Structures are given as structure tokens and as C-alpha cells.
Amino acid sequence: MRQGYQGVVVAAPVTVPYVRYSIRAAHWWLARALASLLQKSGLSKENVDGLSVSSFTLAPDTAIGLTQHLGLSPRWLDHVPFGGASGVVALRRAARAVQAGDADVVACLAGDTNHVDSFRLTLANFSQFARDAVYPYGAGGPNASFAFLTAYYMAQYGAKREDFGKLCVAQRANALKFDFSLFKKPLTLDEYMAARPIAEPLHLFDCVMPCAGADAFLVLSEEKAKALRIPSARLLGTIERHNAFASDPVQMRAGWALDREELYAQAGAGPADMDFVETYDDYPVISLMQLEDLGFCGRGEGPAFVRKHTFTHDGSFPLNTNGGQLSVGQAGASGGYLGMVEAIRQLTGEAGECKVPDAKLGLVSGFGMINFDRGLGSGAAILGC
Amino acid sequence: MLERPKRKNPVLRTRLPTLPPAARSRIALGLTAAAAMGRFELQQCRDCGTVQYPPREACQQCLSIKIIWKSQPDGGELLARTVLHHSNDLFFRERLPWRLGLVKLDCGPTVVAHLHDSVEKRVRVRAMLDRAGQAVLAALPDMGNATEVTVAEDRQLREFTCDPKFRKVLITDGKTALGQQLVHSMVKAKADLIWVGHSEPWKKFPGFSELKNIPQVTLLPLDLTDSKNVREVAAEIGAKVDIVVNNAEHHRAFGIGNRAGVETARAEMDINYFGLLRLAQELGPVMRARGADGQSSAVAWVNVLSIYALANFPPHGTFSASKAAAHSLAQCLRAEMRAAGVRVVNVFPGPMDDEWNQLLPPPKVTPPALASAIVKALQDGIEDVYPGDVAQEWLARWRDNPKALERELSA
Fold this sequence. Notes:
A: about 375 residues; 2 domains; two-stranded antiparallel ribbon; 14 helices; B: about 400 residues; Rossmann fold; 7-stranded parallel beta sheet; 5-stranded mixed barrel
């Protein structure tokens, strides 16, 4: 059995309000995130001795360059360019650093800018495999990759567009109560069904909207959080896995399916104990895959599960309680933090109108990097208050 | 079935050429090298036999670096398909909707491929050059062995071919047997209009009246050694030519010691090398401007070179040298035309069965065989063509060990 995370907490959930386009650089967004963390925790820059950074648009800089840019002198530094898996991965590493005493307070930051042409440039050079074997095929970006997975999932397990639509509509309902969501209008299932096709079977509301933004949180010891008098959530269990099931011809599962027993054993809780779940939701099919892999329903039972629940924050299975990326927006690597920050809000009483009643335990899942035909990274964390 | 394109409205702006994303890692160019010759090759590990894709620097199974590009069975199963209605790239944006498939190859890997319109479950995958000149995979319906799929009839995959159908072709020399066979093959391939050059218009060459009677054919005086004449021809027809087949050549036997003076060698260079240069200077720019001019855009430039361009054949030494020079220039032309998506097709035949190769032993490539190889290369979108048994054998020897071939040819 792996060592637990006793004594480590997460705190100070921060979102720098997203915008569709920004003329600022990623550094601006990360600076705003750090400033918000300090303001929220009452810490000074000198008290932050650990830094973890995730960003797609920080180039040519990495985390080390950012230390000089922001005038920090950390004794522990991490760069986690893992897209949607960044939040969970950053948290795991930071937690161990705090536990081992390598750092007292780690600021975990994710943020990206979005200029008018940023997204295309990110796609064209996303990875060697993408450049060699995906982008020259219609340059559809992740829409095309997830269209394949969605089409296959629908054919294999009988999912209907309405099932994905239900998730999107419920998340929009959640987003309407979240201050930072870019989508402010309600979405009906009819509107979802009538949307224009993007990469069949994906239509407009199946796809996240790229935007600029940043999210951040602190990882520190329980004592330190108490001394600072900031509310915090405990870290109960985590998993991380990359390039799992590499020989599956098409991705219908990822690392969660391999490691979930360990996750629940470490946390001393099971799927039924979770009060809410934050999945990585760049496309709704991926949420279903996570719900199956993490044991909330069986393989291929995603469609039936969707038909059974409401998914609103006050409903029968609170999912992506702030609207998720589908209704808040996808601010690059921040997409991998959005669920984590929301989970911390839920457990520290900061969720406002999106509040899940009596939430004590929540699961956050991350999924990242469509390197070629599938997402490589997967991870999950269980947090409790 | 491909529709005849509407007549062009000369008042409307001609769309400028765009290219699909062309960036590739160096290792991925192995796919391009094979596709240029019409082969479907993937990386295979010499140590453990694993076939892998996308291309990698090491074997994903055993980490060996002994990886070779090897022909693979092209069968596969379509796992999923999508139709793009949105693209981040200009080239595809202008061509939406665009079909794609996720294919599990029988030889192992899963690949993303451009999808032929009539694909069902079983597919055959082909590596083709796209308009940027880089290899892409295309999934075609598996029709068994019975029928060959006509790639050029598919709206999408036609973009990767240089099909002569409905296009206007210039053949630079109609006097030779090859030139006349090329005309017949182009007619068969449904070319709309064929200009045929002849360098001495005051003479009626054998086959002249047959050519004249073909309705698609227009004969025109064209002498590649005459800069003024080339310029005039380009001014007259340049803006309409979709495909150039430069088959004009001067060919004499002997190397260095068997003949005094440089006149013969100069005459060879004047057509084989400078002729290409003159024609390319006059026609190249205007064809580049028409690289995206509708369904029947300017699309290809074919150079009939010689397998002797790869390695000198001493009994035909000066001719070999002129073809080597032409080959080098053709590579330059290819680079310049690529920006417009106009493909330069280089043909490397072995000795042709004509009067200048009388003393060479068979097999020799016949003009009809060569002509149909050229048209097929255009239809399939291949850019390096080695037609005939001699060319294939030389190519194999050259790829295996160029130095050994040099010694063999001088034996």
C-alpha cells in the first residue's frame, strides 16, 4: 500500500476570470493567478517556496523562466505540461513535496492566453505524432480525434446524441450559477440537437470553446493552513497513469480502469461515497468514459447511467458542478485545473450558488494530451473536508 | 462520377493556391519516400518484427533502433469515421466537408486516413502524396481483386492526384513514337485538349496526319532550343495548360573517347537540360498561379528523364550526363512548383525500344508501355516513376549500393 497524504491539504481555489480572446501573454494570466492566491491566503511571495506551472502558451519560457518573470525564489519547482491531466499530476507531486518537507507551500498555477490565431498554432505543433499523422488530415484538431471516439462509442454501446446532450444541458444549467463561465445563456436539448455539425457525430455544443484564463490552488500542510486561517480540503487518494492500454485499437478506456481500486483503497471510500464528481469534459464522451472507468457504472453502461441521473449540482449525481469546460470555456492547460479548483470550492464552502448540499467527499479526474489518436494521461484525486 | 467542370468565368478572381499542412519530422519522411513511388511502407523493427505508426525513432516494443521502412499488407478495418465541417487550415477550409476514417490495419497499427466516399467496413490503405507533396494515408474501399478503385473519381482523393480527365495537356514532342503514344493515352484518360509540339513544322513526320485527325489535338510549332519560340508558345497557351509532359529529348550514343568535339554533347544539353530550363522559365510561373484554379487546375509537370540520370551509363555517357543535369534541375523545379501544389513527376525509364537504343539487349521499354505508365502515375499521384524491368532493376541496385552500380555499369 502506498503511503497516504496525511497532513497535506489543498486550499485557496482561484480562477482568473476567463475571456474569449486576450492580447496578454500566458505570463500575465499566471501572474494574476499567483497574485490572487497570495491575496486569498494572506501569504507573501517570500512564503511561497514551491511552484508548479502548467501552460501551453508559455513558450519559449518554462516554469523556471517564470520565477524570474514573477520575482519568485522557490526551492521546489515543477513544470507539468500535461494538458488536462495537469491538475491531478501537479497536486500529487506538490503533496509529496510538502509531505517530505521539500517545500512548505506550493503554488500550483495553470493558465493560457488565447490570441485570435493561438489555437491553430497550438494544434499544428501539438506533438510530433500530431504533426506527422493527424494535423495533415483535415486539420480538425481534437474535434476530429474525439469524433472518432464518439462515433465508435455510439456504435459500440448504443449511446445517442441525446445522451451527450443531456450532459451538456445539465452542465449549462450549473454554469449559469457560476460567476466565471463564459456561457451565460441557458441551453435546451432542442438547441443542442439542432446545432451545426463540427466533426460528425460532434456538433457545436459537444465542443469546448478555446479561451484565455487561469486557475490556481495552494498545496500546504494542514497546520500551515490552520495558522493562516484559510479553509482547506484534505487529499485522500490519487492515481496517475500514462499511455495505458496502448494496444487497444481505439480508446474506450484509460488508466483509471487500471488503477481505480488503488484510488478507492487509499481514500478508504468507494464510488458510492462521492458527493460530487468533476470529470475532464472537453467532449461529453470522455465524461462517460471516466464514469465507467472510475466504477460509477459498468463498461458500456454510460448511456443508461446518463438516462438515470440529472447531473445538476443539486440533483441526483452532481457532475461538473460549475459547468465544466463545456460551459465555462477551455483556457488551455487551465482546463486541467478547472475541476480541481471547483472541487476545492465545494469542500471549503466557497461554491456559492453551485453548492452541492452537504458535500464531504468529491472526486476529480484529469485526462490529457491527444498525442496521436487518444488521450495519454489520466489521473484522479479524491478530496474530502 | 466526376462532372465536367463549368466553363471558367474570366472576370472572377482565380483562387490562389493553398497547401495542406506540410510540416513533418524527418523520420516521417520515410512514408513520403515510399509514397513518391506509389508504395505503402511502414516502419518495421528488424529485431522483433513490430510494425509501427506514426513513425518513431525507436521500436516501441523492444526499443531497437534497427528500424526499416518495409512494404506492408494494405488491408484494414474501418473503426470509426467522421466528416469535418470545420477546419483550422485554409486548404481544408476551402474543401469542406472532408471525410476521415480511423482504420485498424491488419499489420497492427491504428491510423488516421483520408476516406474515400464509398468505404464500408473493409478498406485498403494507400500512401499518397498530398498537394503539399507530403505523404498521407488514404483508405479506399476493398473491392477484392476484381476492380481497381479509381481514386481520381473521388471528390476528395482527386485532390491528391493529377488526373488528366477534363484537363488540358501540353506534350512537347509529337514526332516520336513516345509522343504519339502519350497523345493516345491522354485521349483515353479523357484529357480535354492536347497541344502537341513539333520542332520542324515544315516537315511532315510519320504519324502527322493521324495526330492531326484526333479532335482533341492541336499541333503547334515548338522548339525547346529556341527561346523566342518557347516564349511565344507560353504566351499563347500558358494560361491554359494544366499538365506539361516534357518528352522532347536529344539522344546519341557514345561517351567521351569515341567522338571528337562537344557538338553532340552540346545538342543533348541544349534540349535535355536547357530546353527544360527554357520551358520551365516561361511556363512555370503561370502554372504556379493556377494551382488552385477549380477542379481542373494546373496540376502536374512531367519530365521524361532516364534511368541513366541516376548513374552514368558509359556507352551513352554524354546523354547520361545531360539527363543527370535535367534531373537536378527538375528537383529545383519541383521545389519551386510545390508552393502552388503543382506536382513535378520525374520519369526514369530504362532504355526505350527506339532507334537510338538499337544495340542494347532487351528488355527495353516500349513507347505504349511508357506512355501508359506516365498517365497512370498522374492518375495515382506518384511523383517518381521507374517504368520497365530495367529501370526497376537499376533502381534496386542503386538504392542498395550506388558505388556497386557504378562499377557494374562500367564493366
